[in-house]
Specification:
Length: about 500
């Protein structure tokens, strides 16, 4: 996909699991051998990897997004009335319990996934959360819904950080942004067409009892689809490079060596708990986590309350509110991939992700203060794009500033765990009593996006200075090692 000229600043990656954890710094000692393959060989291999990495990952992640947000579609399809979710904060409670387990179990999942293998671990998680969604179709009170949502968060916790970890192990530094964006945005098709699909399912009525309620069929059909996907996913999910069998020895050599070019040698090791804790103390990881917290809280706010805003805030009918929920997501998919391509092409992250945050702010202001429904709906396009695009953009940003493979898994899990906290925020700042404008929630989201821009610019200026100091030291024959890896450069 990417020509070798476009991947000069590459990222260290090795797919051999070391037999011991004696040292995480042995990657500094030996130089990587020179490239011994042609650009054409590399191009063909990258295409082959692309078609094995992404299809099933995109499908199951799309199902996960659908399964965690279909509660908003069910809400306006009769769930709120039947389970009395409009009493007090019941709806907000049912939303936020998902993120408790989602936050707690992400890092342990990435600790497990490389040991057990991606195919079997992820397949178990997919099947388990599919059963949770299926169970929601048979509940009779809001407490049962809340319990199933809590288990849904536990089982979904491992998929997204695991997928980002897998992608980061296969690609170079300036190949990752558009690929993570393509992965996320392809999965976002479920969010785009999910409301239309949910509307169709809500029209199902069987008999005159509990199965005559359309909202139940939203959960039943989507739950069955997820369980089936989980059962067949071991046949299609990709493993980490050291475990794959679809590459011949020559291809495996290129795949595992290409991600180390221009770097010192790195041997993948399993960090122990103490080493993971040391990685978590990196101050930069704290700022990446704040960035992702903002991006995630903005996304969840819109995902959970967009149909309600369209229905109550803009005055559209139930059918129109469901159908009009889709176009902003379709627009966000294409615009986000285009922006990610630009980011990889110019080899800069901060101008792109800050621009996206600014577009999100403008969109929220238009929704909040415009009068005409059509203009406010246009603002929804901007807001959805600006917020959604910064989820993969922020993950690529944090991934690109991390040299060692074992640390990539920790960084991805920590960032996405902070995103779970953002989900709790996003599900609570839009309160029922603030309808139909949701002024406090809107301005809280705007303020957080402003904070995102400030943090991103400050971090990037620091990274540019560190790169400059490392370049100067290299020219003068001095040692100035970034991220404890010779030759590594940040991607601000």
């Amino acid at each position: 996909m990417a020509d070798s000229k476009d991947v000069v600043a590459s990222q260290i990656e090795q797919a051999d699991i070391a037999s011991s954890n004696d040292s995480l710094r042995k990657d500094e000692e030996q130089p990587v051998s020179d490239q011994d393959w042609t650009p054409e060989e590399e191009r063909k291999l990258v295409w082959k990897i692309d078609f094995r990495v992404f299809p099933m990952l995109c499908i199951v992640f799309g199902l996960s997004l659908l399964d965690r947000t279909n509660i908003s579609a069910a809400y306006i399809a009769g769930l709120a009335k039947d389970l009395k979710l409009n009493i007090g904060a019941r709806y907000s409670v049912a939303l936020l319990v998902f993120f408790i387990g989602y936050c707690i179990f992400e890092l342990p999942s990435n600790f497990i996934i490389r040991r057990l293998g991606a195919r079997w671990w992820l397949s178990f998680l997919i099947t388990a959360w599919g059963c949770c969604v299926l169970g929601m179709g048979f509940i009779h009170d809001w407490k049962s819904l809340t319990i199933l949502r809590a288990f849904l968060g536990i089982f979904e916790a491992g998929l997204f950080p695991g997928a980002v970890y897998i992608i980061g192990s296969w690609y170079r530094q300036y190949e990752t942004a558009r690929r993570i964006s393509i992965f996320y945005m392809a999965s976002l098709l479920s969010s785009g067409f999910g409301p239309i699909f949910a509307y169709a399912l809500s029209l199902i009525s069987v008999g005159s009892g509990m199965y005559s309620h359309g909202w139940r069929w939203i959960f039943i059909i989507e739950g069955i689809a997820t369980v089936v996907a989980g059962l067949i996913s071991p046949l299609f999910l990709i493993e980490f490079p050291e475990r794959v069998t679809f590459l011949n020895p020559r291809e495996k050599h290129i795949a595992t060596t290409r991600v180390k070019i221009d770097k010192g040698r790195e041997d993948v090791v399993h960090p122990n708990v103490k080493q993971v804790c040391v990685m978590l103390l990196d101050w930069k990881l704290g700022l990446y986590s704040i960035q992702y917290f903002v991006a995630a809280s903005s996304v969840y706010s819109l995902a959970y309350f967009q149909p309600i805003i369209l229905r109550e805030g803009m005055g559209f009918s139930y059918a129109k509110a469901q159908l009009l929920s889709s176009p902003p997501y379709i627009f966000a998919i294409f615009a986000s991939i285009a922006f990610a391509y630009v980011s990889d092409k110019i080899r800069m992250r901060w101008p792109v992700i800050c621009s996206q945050a600014l577009i999100g702010i403008i969109g929220l202001l238009v929704i909040l203060y415009a009068k005409a429904p059509g203009v406010r709906y246009f603002g929804l396009f901007l807001a959805v794009f600006g917020c959604q695009a910064n989820v993969p953009g922020t993950l690529a940003y944090g991934n690109n500033q991390t040299a060692r493979t074992e640390k990539k898994g920790v960084v991805a899990a920590a960032m996405i765990s902070s995103g779970a906290l953002g989900g709790i925020t996003g599900s609570t700042i839009f309160r029922s009593q603030d309808a139909p404008t949701y002024l406090p929630g809107m301005w809280s989201t705007i303020a957080m996006l402003m904070l995102y821009i400030v943090i991103t610019i400050s971090l990037s200026m620091y990274f540019k200075r560190q790169n400059r100091l490392a370049d100067e030291a290299e020219r003068e024959g001095r040692e100035y090692v970034l991220e404890k890896v010779r030759g590594f450069r940040y991607a601000p």
